[in-house]
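Researcher: Good morning. I'm working through a list of sequences from a screen, and I'd like to move beyond sequence-only analysis. For each chain I'm collecting a predicted structure so we can compare shapes side by side. This is the next one on the list. No need for commentary yet; just the structure.
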Amino acid sequence: MMSDPKPGLLERLEQGGAVCAEGYLFECERRGYVQAGAFVPEVVLDHPEVVRSLHREFVHAGSDIVEAFTYYGHREKLRLIGKEDILEPLNRNALAIAREVAEESGTLLAGNLCNTNLWADPEARESVRAMFTEQVGWAVEEGAELLIGETFSYLEEALLCVEIMRDSGLPTVVTLVFHQEDATRDGYGVAESMRRLEQAGADVVGVNCARGPATTLPLLRTIRDAVSCEVAALPVPYRTTAEQPTMQSLHDPRSPDVRPFPTALDPFTCTRYEMADFARQAYALGVRYLGVCCGAGPHHIRAVAEAMGRWTPASAYSPDMSKHAYLGTDPTLKAGNQQYAGRL
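Model: Good morning. Structure tokens for this chain:
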């Protein structure tokens, strides 16, 4: 007896939305498996069990998509650290790990492409095309069910990525990163950028990374009005402001000599409740592809999923303070402890 096929990305979006966790880079760095700076995901070869476990934690928290950890796993990054020989094994292993978790959980396997850091050099354009082409090829061969191109600060680079992803025939998601200006590095505004990505054939367009919830939300209103396709929003979980709109621009007056980005952002971390509030507002705007980027923990992903009205396996352990010895409301709790609560 054959089981019903699992819904694909577009079906999930039509049925109410999809959650995508993108927090692998910072989470693996925090755990001591990725080096800050180069941020090359060698962990998929050196410690695959760590990546597999993190995939499972994010799925448990509500992610519908298992995104292969190939962010910064492209040829330019491997060249930079002198390890181009591990490029294909790294990509294929990342995809195999993600496929294993997607198959066991009924979630979707996504191949992942990203900014190359080469687009500023016009002479490197054909190299960028070749890098995208080889990564898409490996993703297709390893069974990807959708492709994600993310964190592009140049619209033209993102358009090239869409072109190559579309050639695969798979659903495509593409997200731009806007830094301190509401424009790409090649001078395109938010609305125009999204319209051009949609016209290029992307199924889902939007923003990810750099900006936190407070400085991402205003962009979403512009994007939702500009396009008719699905919209994605995956902010970083940091308290960015109008004056410091990105995690890279944050500064901590208590440690003026230390740059918070990327390894001292802890004081700026959003709570799960802040991420849930963002997700509710974004979802109300019609943004149905939601997630969290660099800095995300599983508790942030669960908060986003629950804000969309979803129940996740991790929801069985969502906070319930009613039984807390001091702060609870259960009638069997000791009155003396509750009376002492104000002095904790």
